[in-house]
Amino acid sequence: MPLPSCLVSPFPALRLLVLAALLCARLACAQAPQEAQQEVQAYNTYLHAPFLNEDGSGIAAELVACLNAHMSGVKLHLNNISRRRLLLAQMRDAAAFEGVGLLLSPAFVNEDKQPRFLWSDPIFQDYNVLIFAGAAAPAVASVADLKGKRFGAVVGNRYLYMEEQVAAGSIMRHDTNGERLNLRKVANGRLEFTQMNRLLYGAMSAEPEFAGKLVAISEPGMPPFSRRIFVGPHHPEWMAKLNEALAALPCDRRWRATAGRHGIALAPCAGH
Fold first, then answer.
1. Does domain 128-218 match CATH 3.40.190.10?
2. What is the pTM of this model?
């Protein structure tokens, strides 16, 4: 093929410049423009297995890895902090929140009535349990059956099932710094019951110090809740990406394996 007339020049230097310009133009057309990557902190407030294991693995880490695999332009980095710190620091000013909150339900962080943040589609459905000492659970048909009992809570956590009774003083709330301490107090008779997520309880109750000492029941009358993700109101573009990634998770082999290990029900794969 003959060279373009612009390349047939008596000036070798000019000919080389034209060749270089044509080559650069072809390379620019061949390369698709890449979206700038934003590094974003993803906050997890579940600080025990199976959400956070001692080696840093767990449901929270798996969720972050799977979301990252289905998103472009945003890369999440797992940051494990207490619920109290999330509420008092990161969530204090919604307009200044530059992170992502993981695995929560709006009511857990005072977002059920007047939400200030954007909330995602559900990740999965979950539920909480009431834990008592002994081999057999007491008869608890409703929250009224807990009247007069001492309840072990975690500082900073909301307990929707018992809010009215605690406020009225018919259930006595005793705050501690964590779920494991509450289980110890129940097992030793210092508290009469506690409440926690069924996944956390399943992991902790298998530890030798609690073997045969505790029994759990689902919260009577309470439906399952949806675990979700939230972002600041000024980041709808992040929420769109997160919802798109969440829609792909039921078909993600890694996420399905994680869900299977922990008895988490997922929607059927829709062919993503």
1. yes
2. 0.84
